[in-house]
Design goal:
Blueprint: H1 2-30, H2 38-44, E1 48-56, E2 70-82, E3 85-89, H3 90-93, E4 98-102, E5 108-110, E6 112-117, E7 122-126, E8 148-153, E9 161-172, E10 183-186, E11 198-201, E12 206-213, E13 224-228, H4 229-242, E14 248-249, E15 252-256, H5 259-264, E16 273-278, H6 283-286, E17 294-298, E18 301-302, H7 306-314, E19 321-328, E20 331-338, E21 340-341
Antiparallel strand pairs: 1-2, 1-4, 2-3, 3-7, 4-5, 6-7, 8-9, 8-11, 9-10, 10-13, 11-12, 12-13, 14-21, 15-16, 16-17, 17-18, 17-19, 19-20
Pfam family, one: Trypsin_2
InterPro entries: Chloro_Bact_Ser_Proteases (IPR051201), PDZ (IPR001478), PDZ_6 (IPR041489), PDZ_sf (IPR036034), Peptidase_S1_PA (IPR009003), Peptidase_S1C (IPR001940)
Organism: Marinomonas phaeophyticola
Length: 352
């Protein structure tokens, strides 16, 4: 009888211990306050730099020392991607005479501007290869609304500051910040000085470059925007290779057709792109494309969203020809159009 009771007690003890450990594991998984982000932060901070820009001062009197020759113009952040190349925001380094990069180990280096892109507000800086981490930073395009994210940068000059939040929305556009907008929206606190810094996931992988905040006061109000890393890397590679980015231009503005829109406008189909505007003297206008037309395919590819169409058109080689399958009224048509170079100063940001 004693042996049986001991066995029963032992089994109950094991069951109780298993339940206890299970509850603890569940608590750690579901309660962020019990989870440390030390690992992903430590993994990423060596790649995040502070950026200081300086302008030359205009003096009529002799200078007492060399420090009077220039003054601090702005500060922000940047991310070393690989081989000494740094991604940051263009607005940080525009109209400056010198850009100083401060590394994680506090080393100060005068950087070289490789190139910039106004349409996405991105710039590429370069420091000596030996001063950057040995391996490229890890990146990820696998993101979803609700994912936990961390923003790392130098808000108000406070180096290596980290804030936490979630992805609030994806593919945000029509914000009025850049010509090409495909923002990650996050509620992680982003303040002045965070621009150009890293937005990472909880694995320490870079998912975006922090770019802007929506604020009435200049401080964080829970709405920040980051450029997806895939878009940023495309810009960086083009700048490194060519020194600039040349984008294709068709000259249309479109809206995605939904079943509700199709029904309200009595459209013949319930998917595709409805042309809402055609730019004057654009390739689309010269090819006879009209407001109210529906684009179904471009180069035999079904196009369902303006984002997909813009991504396709802007990456096409200049002077290449495309085939557009469209519908006007109840009649389908095909148009062959020559893609032109997008002139940043010559066309409204609503067209692609």
């Amino acid at each position: 009888m004693t042996i049986k009771l001991f066995g029963t007690a032992f089994i109950l003890l094991l069951i109780g211990s298993s339940i206890g450990w299970g509850l603890k594991a569940l608590q750690v998984k579901t309660n962020p306050s019990n989870h440390s982000f030390t690992a992903p932060i430590s993994k990423t901070t060596p790649y995040v730099v502070s950026i200081y820009t300086y302008k030359k001062n205009q003096h009529t009197k002799p200078l007492k020392n060399e420090h009077q020759a220039e003054s601090l113009d702005s500060l922000g952040s940047g991310v070393i991607i690989k081989n000494g190349y740094i991604l940051t925001n263009k607005h940080l380094i525009s109209n400056t005479d010198k850009v100083i990069v401060v590394l994680n180990n506090q080393q100060r280096i005068t950087s070289k501007l490789v190139g910039s892109d106004s349409a996405t507000d991105l710039a590429v800086l370069q420091i000596p290869h030996e001063d950057s981490p040995k391996h490229p930073i890890e990146t990820s395009n696998n993101i979803q609304v609700g994912d936990i994210v961390l923003a790392i940068g130098s808000p108000y000059g406070l180096k290596k500051s980290v804030t936490m939040g979630i992805i609030s929305a994806l593919s945000r556009s029509n914000i009025g910040l850049n010509h090409y907008e495909n923002f990650i929206q996050t509620d992680a606190a982003i303040n002045p000085g965070n621009s150009g810094g890293a937005l990472i996931n909880n694995n320490g992988e870079l998912i975006g470059i922090n770019s802007a905040i929506f604020s009435n006061t200049g401080g964080s109000q829970g709405i920040g925007f980051a450029i997806p890393i895939a878009d940023a890397l495309y810009v960086m590679h083009e700048i490194i290779k060519y020194g600039k980015i040349e984008r294709g231009y068709l000259g249309i503005k479109t809206e995605a057709i939904t079943p509700e829109i199709a029904q309200s406008l009595a459209l013949p189909i319930n998917k595709g792109l409805l042309i809402s505007k055609v730019d004057n003297m654009s390739p689309a206008q010269e090819a006879g494309i009209q407001i109210g037309d529906i684009i179904v395919k471009i180069n035999d590819m079904e196009i369902l969203t303006p984002k997909d169409a813009q991504s396709l058109i802007t990456k096409l080689p200049i002077m290449s020809k495309i085939s557009v399958i469209g519908i006007r009224g109840n009649q389908s048509y095909q148009a062959n159009i020559t893609i032109e170079r997008f002139q940043e100063m010559g066309h409204s940001s609503q067209y692609y």
